[in-house]
Structures are given as structure tokens and as C-alpha cells.
Amino acid sequence: GAVVSQHPSWVICKSGTSVKIECRSLDFQATTMFWYRQFPKQSLMLMATSNEGSKATYEQGVEKDKFLINHASLTLSTLTVTSAHPEDSSFYICSASSRWGLSGANVLTFGAGSRLTVL
Amino acid sequence: DAKTTQPNSMESNEEEPVHLPCNHSTISGTDYIHWYRQLPSQGPEYVIHGLTSNVNNRMASLAIAEDRKSSTLILHRATLRDAAVYYCILRDDGGATNKLIFGTGTLLAVQP
């Protein structure tokens, strides 16, 4: 089945630095990927839709200059948290649409997530 | 986006069936009913989805009400590894660009 790989799985950084998270579709092409953020004991919150070859579409309240998204190829999207602060500490998860089973239904495959801790 | 309503939590015993309900009274004709689950410290995984007819796969069954205003995810024999948060989500399956908006889901606890 379809696999989405995220890297790194966890990262610790100092306040003020920038962190890049990669999301790769390993065995399929993804023109669209989605980035989510999840705080402890809360549900996933959609941050942005990443579109290959064009600008990302951000959800209301998400700062595009803070969370830079680049989707330069059909298999790679990156999220860069710029000038990270402790409140940016969270679980970041990416996903991509893929075809499932014999029916070819359109479902989302998620990465394992990247846990960011900002000191 | 049409919303779904799920119980916050449910408990089950190992090897017993589990019925997880979901209400979606404002569902539109083009909305598919998707179920995903999230194990602790992992990304969500697809479980099952359907439009009008009941669906079965190796993981679970999905029973959809005739008026489509509710559905039930059925785990036939719960195992400890099924302990997770289960999300019922409506999605217009028109294309790959359609995003998934997660609600709060149901936290399923499985007792040995």
C-alpha cells in the first residue's frame, strides 16, 4: 500500500532557530499534501494544503511566514517552522491522497508524525 | 463542511465486538463517510469508508443508515492493539485536493 514517510520523527531545537520537516510519498506521486498539527490530548488541526509547483493554501489563523511550505516535486513536501518558540512545540503530521484497494478509492495516507520540542 | 458527532470515549473487552457510532445529520449527497484511527504517538491510519451501502474490509465493517444520517464502525473482535482514537469524517470524494477536517473522535479503551 501507499506509504508516506516523515523525517525527522522527533527534533529538539533552541528558541529562535528554524526547523525543517520533510514529507515524502514513497511509492506514489502526490500533487497535494496536507500538513496537520496536534497538541497533546487534542485532535488534529489542519494547517495548510501543499500544492506541487504552486503556493500552499493556509487555513485561517495559520501564519504563512511562520510555517513555510515547499512542494517542489511530486513526492516531497517540506514544512519549515521559522524562528521557533516553545509554543510551536507540537506533533506535526503530513498526509497525501492515494488510491486504496481494488476500488481505487481516494483516501489519505498519513506520515508517522514529527514531534518538535522547542526549548 | 458537514459535521459529525461521536461519543468522547467508549470501553470494550478484548475479543468482543465494538460498535462505534457516528451521527452526521447534515451530510450531503456527495459526502463519503470516512473512518480513520490514531494509535498513541502515531499518525492516523485509514480504516474504511463508504457512501450508501454497508462495507467490509479486513479491518472493520461500516454500517450506514438508510437515510445516511448516521453510521457505525464495527470491530468484530477487539484486540488490545485496537485501542486508539477513532475519527468519523465526511469527505467529498471528488478529488485528491479535498481536505479532511478532524473532529474530536472517540477514544476506545480495550480491557484485557
Concise synopsis of the structure shown:
The complex is a heterodimer of chains A (119) and B (112). Chain A has 119 residues and is mostly beta strands. Chain A contains no helices and eleven strands.
How would you describe this structure to a colleague?
The complex is a heterodimer of chains A (119) and B (112). Chain A is 0% helix and 55% strand. Chain A is mostly beta strands. In chain A, strands 2, 4, 5, 6, 9, 10 and 11 form a seven-stranded mixed beta sheet that branches. Chain A has a four-stranded antiparallel beta sheet with strand order 1-3-8-7, with no helix packed on it. Chain A is globular. In chain A, 35% of the residues are buried. Chain B is mostly beta strands. Helices cover 0% and strands 46% of the residues of chain B. Chain B has strands at residues 9-13, 18-23, 31-38, 45-50, 55-56, 61-64, 70-75, 84-92, 106-111. Chain B has a five-stranded mixed beta sheet, with no helix packed on it. Chain B has a four-stranded antiparallel beta sheet with strand order 2-7-6-5, with no helix packed on it. The radius of gyration of chain B is 13 Å and the shape is globular. The N and C termini of chain B lie far apart (38 Å). The mean pLDDT of chain B is 92. The chains are: A mainly beta (119), B mainly beta (112). Chains A and B meet through strand 4, strand 5, strand 9 and strand 10 of A and strand 3 and strand 4 of B.
